[in-house]
């Protein structure tokens, strides 16, 4: 009666430093299990039994004893080192069958902490096994990389930034290995910057990764901040920096924008305490690296402004035209919404047009009128004006006062007038004499 033997395979692909969990098949009530490692001489590394024994063999050496944890249902190898890769054999004595687990090393070429755009990006993923398997890479965007097995070599670009995945496929089973690539780039922020004439102007240009910032001066040749106003097509340079002299030069002093020390924190942002209508336009920051590669980022700045016509100080009953605009057509999906003061008779109306015409304003319309620029329900920015509406009656009183003033002062006026006339005649005469 020869014992029948069932051979089970389990394939586990791992990288150095990773952890592997080796699961036992379902166990009977009474069991004795031994785990062996087979690479060169066979060694018993651990065993468990139904008596409650959970034992790591101290003779297996530091490479195993420091990494193994054993339980009834599994054996865990933590922080795997090259010596731990190979075949692990599992024996169950009471009902003898064996289970072989094969481990293979996946290696990847060491990468620098970050890459300058244009430098060589090289990724290698190899499994040390004679088994038939396939290896491919998935790019950060989610599509498959080059058809060359296990290795990718190209010039680094912004799109290479992010999580690459190496996929090892063996016997229908896929194992994925993530790998992060960091290419110097502007941090991804929205292309549009919204502000208003009531708010600061902040044009965010950030460079990543942080580690690059310390090496900025040795890798960068020039940095330029350019501006194209919304109403013009002429590009003007606001600031320029050349690493040759280490001097940051302000080219367009009229823009009065300030900047932080970018060599300190990689913050290339421009700032002003209050945005102006003239700030509308496209801002472009471009970095020329020492390898000739140019990296640039453009941001479109929209400044919301409320224009009251004829003005903000009015008399009740007057006509008012309020216009809220970014100085051009709005992007699709972007809308304007007016928020009148709570006291206004128009407070509950829904104003969704940039132009608001109030044929007769009342004193209750005094206060803060806000205009929100929104995308769906998100407020992108807001502008505010304060209206001062005087009472119409007050104006009548004023007219009465001036009228009575006129009546009472009429004799004085006439007197002065006649006096003045006399003086003028006198002066006339004097002038004549002079001549
Ligand atoms: C970056 O610089 C801008 C302009 O100087 C400033 O407004 C912003 O707060 C800075 N950001 C950080 C995180 O320092
Ligand atoms: C900017 O920061 C760097 C690094 O901290 C420093 O060496 C440099 O002098 C600073 N430049 C200015 C203009 O403050
Ligand atoms: C920034 O300006 C430069 C010079 O005009 C241009 O070559 C580059 O394409 C611009 N960058 C972007 C992102 O528009
Ligand atoms: C209201 O003002 C805007 C801009 O100030 C102007 O385009 C529009 O024609 C004016 N409308 C009326 C009815 O006055
Ligand atoms: C915003 O509105 C647009 C259409 O106007 C729609 O396609 C989009 O899904 C909306 N986004 C959110 C976050 O609701």
From TrEMBL:
It holds the Pfam family V-set. Signal peptide: none annotated. The chain crosses the membrane at residues 401-419. Residues 96-182, 302-381 form the Ig-like domain. The keyword Coiled coil does not apply. SUPFAM superfamilies: Immunoglobulin. InterPro entries: Ig-like_dom, Ig-like_dom_sf, Ig-like_fold, Ig_sub, Ig_V-set. Keywords: Membrane, Transmembrane, Transmembrane helix. This is Ig-like domain-containing protein.
């Amino acid at each position: 009666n020869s014992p029948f033997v069932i051979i089970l395979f389990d394939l586990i692909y791992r990288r150095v430093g990773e952890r592997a969990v080796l699961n036992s098949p379902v166990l009977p009530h009474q069991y004795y299990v031994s785990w062996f490692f087979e690479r060169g001489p066979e060694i018993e590394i651990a065993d468990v039994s139904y008596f409650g024994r959970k034992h790591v063999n101290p003779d297996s050496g530091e490479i195993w004893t420091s990494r193994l944890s054993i339980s009834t249902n599994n054996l865990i190898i933590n922080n795997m080192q090259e010596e731990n890769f190979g075949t692990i054999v599992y024996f169950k004595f009471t009902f003898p069958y064996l289970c072989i687990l094969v481990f293979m090393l996946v290696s990847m070429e060491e990468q620098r902490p970050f890459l300058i755009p244009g430098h060589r990006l090289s990724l290698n993923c190899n499994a040390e096994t004679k088994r038939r398997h396939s290896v491919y890479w998935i790019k950060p965007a989610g599509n498959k990389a080059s058809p060359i097995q296990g290795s990718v070599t190209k010039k680094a670009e912004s799109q290479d930034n992010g999580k690459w995945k190496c996929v090892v496929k063996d016997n229908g089973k896929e194992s994925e290995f993530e790998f992060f690539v960091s290419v110097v780039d502007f941090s991804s922020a929205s292309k549009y910057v919204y502000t208003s004439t009531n708010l600061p102007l902040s044009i965010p240009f950030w460079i990543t990764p942080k580690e690059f910032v310390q090496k900025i001066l040795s890798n960068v040749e020039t940095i330029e901040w350019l501006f194209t106003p919304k109403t013009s097509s002429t590009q003007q340079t606001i600031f320029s920096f050349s690493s040759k002299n280490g001097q940051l030069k302000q080219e367009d002093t009229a823009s009065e924008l300030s900047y932080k020390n970018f060599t300190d924190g990689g913050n290339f942002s421009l700032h002003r305490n209050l945005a102006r209508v003239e700030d509308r336009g496209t801002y472009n920051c471009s970095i020329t690296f020492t390898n000739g590669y140019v990296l640039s980022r453009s941001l479109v700045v929209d400044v919301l402004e409320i224009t009251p016509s004829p003005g903000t100080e009015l008399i009740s009953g007057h006509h008012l035209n309020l216009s809220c605009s970014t100085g051009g057509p709005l992007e699709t999906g972007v809308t304007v919404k007016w928020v009148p003061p709570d006291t206004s008779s128009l407070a509950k109306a829904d104003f969704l047009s940039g132009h608001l015409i109030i044929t007769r304003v009342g004193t209750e319309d005094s206060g803060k009128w806000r205009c929100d620029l929104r995308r769906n329900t998100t407020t992108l920015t807001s502008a505010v004006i304060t209206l001062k509406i005087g009472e119409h009656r007050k104006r009548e009183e004023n007219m009465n006062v001036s009228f009575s003033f006129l009546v009472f002062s009429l004799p004085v006026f006439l007197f002065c007038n006649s006096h003045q006339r006399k003086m003028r005649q006198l002066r006339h005469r004097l002038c004549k004499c002079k001549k």
